[in-house]
Amino acid sequence: MIAGHFGLAAAVKAREPSTPLWAMMLATAWLDVVFVPLFLTHVETVEPAPGATASYGGGIIHADYTHSLVGAVALSAILGAAGWAIWNRRVGIVLGLVAFSHWILDLVVHRMDLPILPGNALDLPRLGFGLWQLPDVSALVELLLVLGGAWLYWRAARAAERANSRGNRWADISAAAVLLSGLVVLGLDFTGILG
Amino acid sequence: MIIGFEPDPRVRRVRRWESPVQFLIALFLFVLICGVIDARIKWPKARKGSEQ
Q1: Which residues contact A180 (CB under 8 A, 6 or more apart)?
Q2: Which pLDDT tens digit goes with each residue over B15-47?
C-alpha cells in the first residue's frame, strides 16, 4: 500500500491547495520513511505470511514502533509540528492528519500485525482487517484511490490555473505526473519489484 | 553456483537490504518529480504564520 497513500495525498491536495504536494506525498509515506532505517537495523522486520503466494501484501510486518497506533500518532505529530514551524498551523494540521491517514489505510490492508502500543507493550491485541489476503481486491482499492485522487487533483489544478487566467497546460501535465506516479508505484508494488 | 550453469540475467536476485532502499529512492524520485511540476501551478501560497 504505497500508491493508495499517494492517491489520498493527491485528493487532500485538491482540498487543501496551499499545502505543497511534495510535503503531502512525504507525509502520506512518513511512517514508511521512518520504518526503512529501523528495518535496515533489524529493529523492525518483515516475514512472509503463512500461505501467502504473492509478494504484494504477502508479509507480516513487525513495524512495532513506526506502525503502532501510539507510534503513528507521535510520528504524525512530529511531522505536523514541522509543517506548522515551516508554514503555518493549518498546513501543520493537514500534514499531521495526512501522515496519520497512513495508519488508517494500513489498518484496512494489514494482517493483524499493527500493535497499539510501541514495541507491542502490554501485549495488547494487534490490529488489521487483512484486505491483503485478497491481493486483487486490495490492488483494485489502491487503483481507485490513485484514479480518484488524480482526478480530484486535476480538477483543482485546472481551477487554480483558471483563477489566475492561465491555461491548463501545467495542470494537465502535473495531474498526468501524479497519475503516472501512482500507477507506476502500484505496478512495482503489485509485481513485487519494489519489495 | 553450478559449474557450466549460466544464471538467467533477466532473473535478478534482490538482496534483503535493497528493497527498502529501492522504496526510498522510488519515493523521493516521485515526490521530487511531482513536487517540481506541481510548483508550476499557481496554487494559493501557504505563508508562514498565515492561515490562508
Answers
A1: none
A2: 444 577 777 888 888 889 888 998 999 888 766
Q: Which residues of A touch B24 (CB under 8 A)?
A: 33, 36
Return the HEC string of A75-136.
HHHHHHHHHHHHCCHHHHHHHHHHHHHHHHHHHHHCCCCECCCHHHHHHCCCECCCHHHCHH
ipTM of the complex: 0.76
Contact: B20, A39; criterion CB under 8 Å = yes
Range(s) of the domain holding residue A169: 3-191
- Measured between beta carbons, which residues in chain A are less than 8 angstroms from residue B40? 170, 173-174
Q: What angle do CA A77, A110, A138 make, to 5 degrees?
A: 110
Specify the pTM: 0.85
Nearest CA in chain B to A25: B31
> How many independent structural domains does chain A possess?
1
Q: What span, in angstroms and rounded, lies between the C-alpha atoms of A25 and A28?
A: 5
